[in-house]
Design brief:
single chain, alpha/beta, six-stranded parallel beta sheet, five-stranded parallel beta sheet, 17 helices, about 45% helix, about 15% strand
Length: about 450
């Protein structure tokens, strides 16, 4: 891994510090022009375009993009019992956490006779995306479906790429996860065309109000293309882990956690921020045997760890390290320092924070109960991970009596005239015989 030495000199502020930190090249704007014709083809040709793209990109000719109910049932029947038990426990824990995120309607009595109620209404229909490229991600099905279900979304569909080795169906573990969650509307569609299917609707699939779920750069570009037409969760980029560690951290743990995210993708980012040169050297030494002992070495882990998006960043102390990780805004941030909980409490920018030696990112990926659909690319400085709130819309209900309106009418008219919008004021005056009531 490369080293970035930020010791000695005062750390710069804002974007100047961000520019010093490693980040993957992920040009969604460039990909946008390539997905545009795909999205338009789905708009105009519907299912026929989806079938053609499955043949072009996935190497399989489908008769229909809708997955039959019997395929979902069979996938669950044939699922390894141990995998089923693990998925069920992941679902149980996710429900515990996300159920607590529900929001109740709240009424504020602004004045006697005048109130504003905020009620929370779920999105009516959501399209969920589960990637199916280098790996299979039933965990992503859980992380998207559970908060939507707990929010009360009434209509939910899932898309995942068709797999040639499974006769054009999505991976059977994806289908089994859908069956466990009660999702019976599933489509063998991947990439940008899946987002387009949900945005426009086709003969098989009604349009959705929102699309969520991680994917590759083409999925991210399609989400950007349809922003404004549909709601999205985030333009997810390559996964990231940042670890803030001091001399108390175990280099075996740190190395294994860096590798755990590097195995996702050759563009995955693994960043260690530390004030301990001894730890940095020990981690580098530990990486070699751990990488050699695992899988996906040449196609993912080595390119990820050696890429420009990964580095060991040396700082003068934990305070400086906090400034660095806040500037970086990692998707996943581990704190492996003395008094880790207190240090974690000071973090401002992260998708999710993992405290101490016994809360690795892998736990959050599957069974912590937290959500693993998180902002990437530094977006944690302004965005949150997926939650029940992502699927809810707040609506204000304004209820005023005549007397309550009369009390404030002169202020409304004054502000309308100050903004040169006299018709706004006239809408008030009309209710009182065109004479503004005097304030009491």
């Amino acid at each position: 891994m490369a080293r970035i030495d930020l010791r000695g000199d005062a750390l710069p502020e804002g974007s100047a510090l961000r520019d010093l930190l490693p980040r993957a090249d992920f040009d969604v704007q460039a990909a946008l022009e390539k997905v545009r014709p795909i999205c338009e083809a789905v708009h105009h040709r519907g299912d026929a375009a989806l079938i053609d793209y499955a043949e072009k990109f996935d190497g399989v000719r489908l008769e229909s993009v809708r997955v039959p109910a019997r395929a979902l049932a069979e996938a669950l029947e044939q699922l390894d019992p141990a995998v089923r038990a693990a998925l069920e426990e992941s679902i149980r824990r996710a429900r515990l956490v996300h159920r607590e995120q529900r929001r109740a309607a709240h009424t504020t009595q602004v004045v006697p006779g005048g109130s504003v109620t905020e009620k929370w209404v779920p999105v009516e229909r959501v399209g969920l995306y589960a990637p199916g490229g280098r790996s299979v991600y039933p965990s992503s099905v859980i992380m998207n479906a559970v908060p939507a279900q707990e929010a009360g979304v009434a209509s939910m569909a899932l898309a995942s790429p068709p797999q040639k080795e499974f006769g054009g169906l999505p991976h059977p573990t994806i289908l089994a996860a859908c069956a466990l969650l009660g999702i019976d509307e599933v489509y063998a569609v991947g990439g940008a065309q899946a987002v387009a299917m949900f945005a426009h609707g086709t003969e098989s699939c009604p349009p959705a109000n929102m699309v969520t779920g991680p994917g590759n750069i083409w999925v991210a570009a399609a989400k950007r293309y349809f922003t404004g037409k549909i709601g999205i969760d985030t333009e997810a980029g390559p996964t990231e882990i940042a670890i803030l560690a001091d001399e108390t951290a175990d280099p075996v743990h740190v190395a294994s956690d860096l590798i755990s995210q590097a195995e996702h993708d050759p563009l995955a980012a693994a960043v260690l921020v530390t004030d301990s040169v001894e730890l940095a050297e020990a981690v580098e030494k530990e990486l070699e045997p751990q990488v050699a002992a695992t899988k996906h070495i040449e196609d993912r882990i080595v390119p990820a760890l050696s890429g420009r998006q990964s580095a060991i960043v040396l700082v003068d102390g934990v305070d400086e390290g906090l400034r660095v990780v806040d500037a970086y805004g990692a998707e996943h941030l581990e704190i492996q320092t003395a008094d880790a909980a207190a240090v974690a409490a000071r973090v401002k920018n992260a998708g999710a924070i993992f405290v101490g030696a016994w809360a690795p990112v892998s736990l959050g990926d599957y069974c912590a109960g937290s959500n693993h659909v998180l902002p990437t690319g530094g977006c944690a400085c302004h965005s949150s991970g997926l939650s029940v709130q992502s699927f809810l819309r707040g609506i204000h209900i304004v209820d005023y009596t005549r007397d309550a309106l009369a009390e404030v009418a002169h202020h409304v008219v004054t502000l309308a005239e100050a903004e040169d919008l006299p018709a706004h004021g006239a809408a008030i005056k009309a209710r009182f015989g065109w004479k503004v009531p005097e304030s009491k």
